[in-house]
Amino acid sequence: MREKYMKIRERFSLLILMGYIFFSITLLFIPLGVEDLFLILSYFTLFFFVFFFLNYLFPFFNLRLSGKIILGYLFFAYVVKLLYVLAFTERVKAFNQLSVDIVLDNLTVLLPEILLPTLGLVVVIWVFSSVSDKKSYSSCNFDIKMNKLFVFIFIVILAKFFIHNYLSWGVPGVEPKNVIPGITGLLTFFVRFPLFCIVNVYFIISIYKKSRCYSFLSIMLILFYVLIDLLNGSKYSLIYEVFFLMFALYFAYKNSLIRLKSVCLFIIVASFVLPIYKYINYIRFATMDGAGIYQAIEVASINVNEKKVTFLDEFINRINGIEHSLYALNSNLSSSKFDLMSLLTDQMAVAYTESVTGVGGIVNSVGSSQVAVIILNSNFYLDSLLLSICYFSLSFIVLRWMFFCFSKKITSNKIQALSLEVIFSLFYIYFLFGTGNFIFFLKEMLVISASFLLLKLFVINDAK
């Protein structure tokens, strides 16, 4: 067994080396000065070396699934996206309020400030994801009352439709109506990520039961959930759902719970659905101007065709990464005075959104990424590295403990546990997209934990 792990460790080390070679060769095809090229390669040589060293100490193969996914996101957001920023600078939406020349001129000066806290984050996720953990699921067999659970979820989805479409609570860019202090926030939280968790738990249980009826009902619930968000201009649920289903169906196929044709059907459907993503922003802005949904779709089609918007550009721009840190350091925010409270509150989130969009006073947000917040709260390289390690250690430990402490109560097998690892990784990436405001994410995790307890208390019967 040890020899097997050694081989897997060596294979991943080889993969890291291949990634470094690919990055270096691609960089050579981008028109850069010799000095800039040398500096960028030097910085990222260190970056890749840290990956290589961590894999030697804590083999990637042994990491929890959530850690692997988060590290994959970080590699894409800070390595692959740098190549995108250099090759297609004019397509980076985060630079809309900046001169492209300013960004490129300051790039090599600012890269160390960005990469050090990023490496701190990489170390935290890698180390804490390698720590041995107890089973994240119960040894008891749960008798799931599927009909009751379906009715409960369906009622909540109807409530989500009412909350978004009639009260305008939680709709991007729209001022909510008839706000009830405490209740509005709680319900808005509940119909977002907690509902995403509940719907997908129902889907996984349906697959595990090998029930065509419940599987069909779960797919209908997922479609309703995503459609409501899309019609209200929210794009995250579509990407999150496709990403989650990709892993969930893989686990199910690997354990002979579904056939290969089901996986192929999902791939075909996803390839047709994902291009919708590029229309969502334009639908949102049209509805904000008072257009009906059909008129908004027509306006979105015209804009997409005129501006030649592609799904790939929209998708890459939506993944917060190195470009938002570059913007934060090049914009007027770099001279603003922020304190460590901006890590906990929305102090910087509001300022960043107004800086990027050039518009204030709307109920919308543009995330700078937590790494950018760390940078703007630091004076020296060592400061940013230590603050990064402390902040991300705290956030990862607390959020992970809260999530799995309660989700374990409704998890009875390894497939469900792995699926919940995927959901947690999505939530933590969602947190990393943010601009400080840890208290906000902590509140949302509290609601997620409460939703798991709700399932345990009112829906799930423990049959020992």
Give a short summary of the structure.
The protein is mostly helical and about 475 residues long.
How would you explain this protein's 3D organization?
It comes from Pseudoalteromonas lipolytica. The chain has 464 residues and is mainly α. 71% of the residues lie in helices and 1% in strands. It has 20 helices and two strands. Strands 1-2 form a two-stranded antiparallel ribbon. Helix 3 runs parallel beside helix 19, helix 5 crosses helix 17 and helix 5 runs parallel beside helix 18. The model has no long low-confidence stretch (mean pLDDT 83).
Strand order of the largest sheet: 1-2
The H/E string reads: HHHHHEHHHHHHHHHHHHHHHE
* Share of β-strand residues: under 5%
Q: Biggest sheet, open or closed, and with what strands and sense?
A: 2 strands, antiparallel
Mean pLDDT: 83
How much helicity do the residues have? over 70%
Output the structural class: mainly alpha
Transmembrane segments: 12-32, 38-58, 70-89, 109-128, 149-167, 179-205, 212-231, 237-253, 260-280, 385-403, 415-433, 439-459
Keywords: Ligase, Membrane, Transmembrane, Transmembrane helix
Protein name: O-antigen ligase
GO molecular function: ligase activity
